[in-house]
Every structure is written in structure tokens, then in C-alpha cells.
Design goal:
globular, alpha/beta, single chain
Length: about 240
């Protein structure tokens, strides 16, 4: 099946996918999820991946983030060909290049906001003083310096997601990936989180790839890429 190639321009791509495919197997039955995906995303882009359930958008996000591996094709992300990395190398690559934002926050309930944000830094070898400075800076960027010692149970859903965003950016990753980041939030908190992500893109130049079902959330991105049954359906540039 032919599928259009999408290149968003804007200089050297931080994400380059060529003929990427992904299938899952149920006993003897092959279930194709993505087919022949060609995609170039430049540094500093903010992309919303959209489409109905089963269209392949979360699978595509997981491939870009190095969480899953393709059945076929080439994925070059943040300067590395992911197919060339073994599992340990891929884990190290994720730690160095990708920040993750999830729908359900994934905070550790027995750790404070400070300790949750500090977690990725424990893998980097940064000293205690450097970790403290970077955690405080990250929590400052999400306007939560007054919640350093609070536990997740003491925070609202919007505050929890902002702590999760601070954790995602504390290592200064090249790429942020977000899977339905406002799916568990009410409208007010969703707008606050989306406004924060927009500022991370426009002011700090973070490249963001976000999966969302919500057209209001997608409008905060600069481009919307729609998938249908594992192939690209269309792309839309957002005027905001």
C-alpha cells in the first residue's frame, strides 16, 4: 500500500523515518499496525499525532521514542539509527535524549515532587548539588517551587502532570514525547498543561511529539498528522 511521505521542512530533521512498518502477531496471524511510514520532523517542531483508536499513532510514538522496535524500515532519531542499538544501548539513548509525559503521570507515590523529578538524574552520575539545582530549575519552569516537598497525593491532577513534565525536562532532553497528556485532566488543568507545553516549544525550543484524541489539545501543536489504519491520512498546519 502506498502511503504519502511527510516532510515538515525547517532544516535538518531530528526524526527521520523511512519505510517504517510495525506488525504484531496473534499466534499465526500477522496484524499490521503501521505500513511504509516516511516522515521527517525538524528540530523545534511541535507535532500532534491524531487518528481513531487502532490507527497506529501510539505505536508510532513508541517507535520514535525507542520504547518499541519496528518490524521493518529505518528510524534515525536524535542522530542515532535506533535499529543499530542493542537493548542496553537503546535504554541509554532514551535516558540521554527523550523525556516522557504520560496520561496518568506515573509519579512514585512514596516520593516527594522533588524526589520524583530527581529520579532521571540519578542515572546520569550528576552530583547532589547539581541534581538539586536542576530539579529546582525544572520545578520553577512549571511554577511548582512551592510544592518541592509535597507528595503526589497532596497535589491536584494538574499539579501532578506539571511535576511529570518537570521530570521529563530535567535531563534537558532533545525530544519530548507525550501520550494523551491531558486525557486525565479537567478542561482548566488541561489548558494550563497545554499552555506550558506550548511555552516549552516556543521559548525553550523543545521538539514535541504528542498523541491526542482531543482537537483542542491538537490545536496547541504547530502541525497535526492524521493517521488512518496504519498510514498517513493528511497533515494540517495550525495557525495560532
Amino acid at each position: 500500500m502506498d502511503t504519502p511521505s511527510i516532510s515538515l521542512g525547517g532544516g535538518e530533521p531530528i526524526i527521520r523515518l523511512r519505510d517504517v512498518a510495525k506488525s504484531y502477531w496473534r499466534e499465526e496471524l500477522e496484524i499490521p499496525v503501521l505500513q511504509g511510514i516516511d516522515l521527517d520532523i525538524p528540530v523545534g517542531a511541535y507535532i500532534a499525532l491524531m487518528g481513531p483508536s487502532g490507527s497506529g499513532k501510539t505505536t508510532l510514538l513508541n517507535l520514535i521514542a525507542g520504547i518499541d522496535r519496528p518490524t521493518g524500515g529505518s528510524l534515525e532519531v536524535c542522530g542515532s539509527e535506533l535499529n543499530d542499538l542493542d537493548d542496553d544501548e537503546l535504554a541509554g539513548w532514551r535516558n540521554g535524549h527523550v523525556g516522557f509525559i504520560f496520561q496518568n503521570y506515573n509519579l512514585v507515590p512514596v516520593l516527594t515532587a522533588f524526589e520524583n523529578v530527581e529520579l532521571p538524574l540519578l542515572l546520569t552520575g550528576a552530583g547532589r548539588g547539581e541534581r538539586r539545582d536542576r530539579v529546582e530549575q525544572a520545578l520553577g519552569l512549571v511554577n511548582l517551587t512551592d510544592k518541592l516537598r509535597s507528595y503526589p497525593r497532596q497535589l491536584s491532577g494538574g499539579q501532578e502532570q506539571r511535576v511529570a513534565i518537570a521530570r521529563a525536562i530535567v535531563t534537558e532532553p532533545d525530544l519530548l514525547v507525550a501520550d494523551e497528556p491531558t486525557g486525565a485532566l479537567d478542561a482548566k488543568n488541561a489548558e494550563e498543561v497545554l499552555g506550558l507545553m506550548e511555552r516549552l516549544n516556543s521559548e525553550l525550543g523543545k521538539t514535541i511529539v504528542m498523541v491526542t484524541h482531543d482537537p483542542k489539545a491538537a490545536h496547541h501543536a504547530r502541525h497535526q498528522i492524521h493517521l488512518e489504519k496504519g498510514v498517513f491520512d493528511r497533515t494540517v498546519e495550525v495557525n495560532r
